[in-house]
Amino acid sequence: MEFLRVVKRRSVLSETIYILLNIALAVGVLAATWATGTPWLALALVMLSKWRVLAVRPRYWFAHIEANMVDFIVSFGTVTLMFLAGQTLGGRGAFAQILLALFYAGWLLLIKPRTRRSFITAQAATAMVVGTMALASISYEWPSSLVVAIMWVIGYSTARHVLMAYSDNDARLLSLIWGFVIAELGWVTYHWTIAYSVFFLPGLKLPQLTLLVIGLSFLAERAYASYHKHETIKRSDMVLPLVFTLGLFAVLLLTPLNQASIGAI
């Protein structure tokens, strides 16, 4: 019984330390962005926090990096958005940065550690939203080839993250294909960028690209889940996802251009 009490105390202590360290990371990223006015120190802190990914033999580095790409995308994307929000004059930018720091703490403590399939899907969706939003917001002067390559990484990593939860033997192949689909969308929208203001994140905009890839990814995930369960894509499983996706696309097409920003975000 005494041994069980010791184990329980150690478990509570380790859990408390884990929570405090993750909160400290989110606060540290925010403080580094405020102190330097650049994203580089904050990105360095994020890299240092991922040391366990490379704390293995070099031959396992690629596998570990691949398995943690969703976390990398969310972390780097959040830092990028935090930096961009800081470019807004006045206190509105600081307010957006604080909200992003709270989001990052929530990601580290509440979303990232979960292993249920629904949470794994939510993790991939979060990476898709944050990654594409950050990329579209900062890459308007980058070479299109670099943007397409990063979009492919985002598409491949998020698709693999979901498919591995289904233990699919063709997860890598399907992820490669989905990466090319997302990369193609990135190439098209790179030449015609439309973004919408986000009322709770002043200084930042939501690119149409993000909404497009989320709609398509949601539809593809629902189709795959139906096939995995029934060995066929059932019409009843796809009606609501299809209506939602088509409705989203219709709203994007019908939104007056004078309510959106075109070109550099």
Walk me through this protein's architecture.
With 265 residues, this protein is mainly alpha-helical. The protein is built from ten helices and three strands, in the order H-H-H-H-H-H-H-H-E-E-H-H-E. It has helices at residues 2-36, 40-49, 61-67, 69-85, 91-111, 117-138, 144-165, 171-190, 208-230, 235-254; strands at 194-197, 205-207, 261-262. A three-stranded antiparallel β-sheet has the order 2-1-3. Helix 1 (2-36) packs antiparallel against helix 2 (40-49). The mean pLDDT is 87.
Layout of helices and strands:
Elements: H1 2-36, H2 40-49, H3 61-67, H4 69-85, H5 91-111, H6 117-138, H7 144-165, H8 171-190, E1 194-197, E2 205-207, H9 208-230, H10 235-254, E3 261-262
Antiparallel strand pairs: 1-2, 1-3
Short description:
By secondary structure, this protein is mainly alpha-helical. The protein is 74% helix and 3% strand. It has one domain.
Largest sheet: 3 strands, antiparallel
* Biggest β-sheet: strands ordered side by side in the sheet: 2-1-3
Q: What oligomeric state do the depicted chains represent?
A: single chain
Rg of Cα set: 20 Å
CA-to-CA gap between the ends? 61 Å
Proportion of β residues? under 5%
Count the helices. How many?
A: 10
Shape: globular
Give the helix/strand class.
mainly alpha
Give the helices and strands as they follow along the chain: HHHHHHHHEEHHE
**Low-confidence spans: pLDDT under 50, at least 5 residues?**
none
